[in-house]
Design a protein that fits this description.
The complex is a heterodimer of chains A (about 110) and B (about 120). Chain A has about 110 residues and is mainly β. Chain A has strands at about 10-15, 20-25, 30-40, 45-50, 55, 60-65, 70-75, 85-90, 105-110. The relative contact order of chain B is 0.33. Chain B contains no helices and eleven strands. Classes of the chains: A mainly beta (about 110), B mainly beta (about 120).
Chain lengths: ~110, ~120
């Protein structure tokens, strides 16, 4: 699996958009970008994933650059409950392929 | 819709004792994963099953660790004998077959294990 690089921490004001970047310059053509988050004392929670096109669901939007070497997770209106560690993972879109979690980005949403 | 259920939520035991962690995956999911999380090493995959068969156990740290999946609705992770360095949060996750399309892993809330 391709390695990912994320900033270790970020702050965001409540109600504002949180933009979390991820670099994955060695991604291969058949690898997907997945985002999970982990709120304190809970298991990781799936947020969104994509291959080439931008994706949006009820939780977030995922913007993938045209060369696929980087992506941005967008939480459009961050709330205090969005405070968590966010993990960007690159993997084949196969349920049997393991997820390799890096250090993630610790997002702190402040009032 | 019940999620992945793990038990116990917390376990404190003395070094040398046998520890058994339990997991009930989401009904209909074909894949089951065991992870371990520590401050030093983060989240690590230990082993995963497909249709109750172990597929990759390369992440299991040593022979003291064993995992079984006797049926589609139950799995155990056993540590015997336990050591203080095994203290961690252990997560179980499950996912459906890739053929059903979007198939993220769904995680339980973990078992916090402390070996004294």
């Amino acid at each position: 699996d391709a390695k990912t690089t994320q900033p270790p921490s970020m702050d965001c004001a409540e109600g504002r958009a949180a933009n979390l970047p991820c670099n994955h310059s060695t991604i291969s053509g058949n690898e997907y970008v997945y985002w999970y988050r982990q709120i304190h004392s809970q298991g990781p929670q799936y947020i969104i994933h994509g291959l080439k096109n931008n994706e949006t669901n009820e939780m977030a939007s995922l913007i993938i650059t045209e060369d696929r070497k980087s992506s941005t997770l967008i939480l459009p209106h961050a709330t205090l409950r969005d405070t968590a560690v966010y993990y960007c993972i690159v993997t084949l879109n196969n349920a049997g392929n393991m997820l390799t979690f890096g250090g993630g980005t610790r997002l702190m949403v402040k009032p | 819709d019940a999620g992945v259920i793990q038990s116990p939520r917390h376990e404190v035991t003395e070094m040398g004792q046998e520890v058994t962690l339990r997991c009930k995956p989401i009904s209909g999911h074909d894949y089951l994963f065991w992870y371990r999380q520590t401050m030093m090493r983060g989240l690590e995959l230990l082993i995963y099953f497909n249709n109750n068969v172990p597929i990759d156990d390369s992440g299991m740290p040593e022979d003291r660790f064993s995992a079984k999946m006797p049926n589609a609705s139950f799995s155990t992770l056993k540590i015997q004998p336990s050591e203080p360095r095994d203290s961690a949060v252990y997560f179980c996750a499950s996912s459906p077959s890739w053929s059903t399309g979007n198939q993220p892993q769904h995680f339980g809330d973990g078992t916090r294990l402390s070996i004294l």
